[in-house]
From TrEMBL:
<dbReference type="InterPro" id="IPR039420">
    <property type="entry name" value="WalR-like"/>
</dbReference>
<protein>
    <submittedName>
        <fullName>Response regulator transcription factor</fullName>
    </submittedName>
</protein>
<dbReference type="InterPro" id="IPR016032">
    <property type="entry name" value="Sig_transdc_resp-reg_C-effctor"/>
</dbReference>
<dbReference type="GO" id="GO:0003677">
    <property type="term" value="F:DNA binding"/>
</dbReference>
<dbReference type="InterPro" id="IPR058245">
    <property type="entry name" value="NreC/VraR/RcsB-like_REC"/>
</dbReference>
<dbReference type="InterPro" id="IPR001789">
    <property type="entry name" value="Sig_transdc_resp-reg_receiver"/>
</dbReference>
<dbReference type="GO" id="GO:0006355">
    <property type="term" value="P:regulation of DNA-templated transcription"/>
</dbReference>
<dbReference type="Pfam" id="PF00196">
    <property type="entry name" value="GerE"/>
</dbReference>
<keyword id="KW-0238">DNA-binding</keyword>
<dbReference type="GO" id="GO:0000160">
    <property type="term" value="P:phosphorelay signal transduction system"/>
</dbReference>
<keyword id="KW-0597">Phosphoprotein</keyword>
<feature type="domain" description="HTH luxR-type">
    <location>
        <begin position="151"/>
        <end position="216"/>
    </location>
</feature>
<feature type="modified residue" description="4-aspartylphosphate">
    <location>
        <position position="55"/>
    </location>
</feature>
<dbReference type="Pfam" id="PF00072">
    <property type="entry name" value="Response_reg"/>
</dbReference>
<dbReference type="InterPro" id="IPR011006">
    <property type="entry name" value="CheY-like_superfamily"/>
</dbReference>
<feature type="domain" description="Response regulatory">
    <location>
        <begin position="4"/>
        <end position="120"/>
    </location>
</feature>
<dbReference type="InterPro" id="IPR000792">
    <property type="entry name" value="Tscrpt_reg_LuxR_C"/>
</dbReference>
Length: 218
């Protein structure tokens, strides 16, 4: 199956470069471009998009607001944000808005193609180190606001097995690593993660990690 990608960046040279990179893949098709966040939202609303590569800093509507708006649409695509700086404030805000991961703009072409395949398959886009950095940034930005009772209530809906998987997700483990550690198939891990996302109203693994951290389980 071909993955249909929308390129959202206010720099036409960046869009052209990404289109050239992705055009060499047999599994990816660039089906649209947007020069600002509002254009990205409007294009996604029209349908036919599987993944959005979303620049963070754009005019009219920035990538963070655009990500939030896209993910509120019915059957939304995956969103990968593009940034210049690794794990900066904007990345944290984009992931909090529900982005499925992020890519640095100088990421090698083969890794960009692989990253798109990963988010489509529900695999993590963030290393354990980056996940922990992002959790620290989120929690440090809101000191004294942790509500253990509310956080525990939120994760109480998880089964024991789902809680084990969610803790592993929070630790930055890949699906394959979770499968090996918990002695289950990768397909079963994916099913558990899908249930966890639904129960915690999460769209990415960082949101799951933050929920487990707030509940005192990480």
């Amino acid at each position: 199956m071909t993955t249909r990608v929308l390129l959202a960046d206010d720099d036409p040279l960046v869009r052209a470069g990404l289109a050239l990179i992705l055009g060499g893949s047999d599994t990816i098709s660039v089906v649209g471009e947007a020069a600002n966040g509002q254009e990205a939202v409007d294009t996604v609303r029209s349908g036919g998009i599987d993944v959005v590569l979303m620049d963070i800093r754009m005019p009219v509507l920035d990538g963070i607001a655009a990500t939030a708006a896209v993910l509120e649409l019915p059957d939304p695509p995956k969103v990968i944000v593009l940034t210049t700086f690794d794990a900066d404030e904007y990345v944290v805000r984009a992931l909090a808005a529900g982005a499925n991961g992020f890519l640095l703009k100088d990421t090698p072409p083969a890794e960009i193609v692989a990253a798109i395949g990963k988010v489509v398959d529900g695999e993590p886009m963030l290393s354990p180190t980056i996940t922990q950095q992002l959790i620290r940034q989120v929690t440090d930005a809101a000191p004294g606001q942790r509500d253990d009772a509310a956080a525990l209530s939120r994760v109480a809906c998880l089964t024991d097995r789902e809680r084990e998987v969610a803790i592993a997700v929070g630790g930055g483990s890949s699906n394959a690593e979770i499968a090996a550690d918990l002695h289950m198939s990768v397909a079963t891990v994916k099913a558990h993660i899908s249930h966890i996302f639904t129960k915690l109203d999460a769209t990415n693994r960082v949101q799951v990690a933050i929920a487990m951290h707030d509940a005192g389980l990480l």
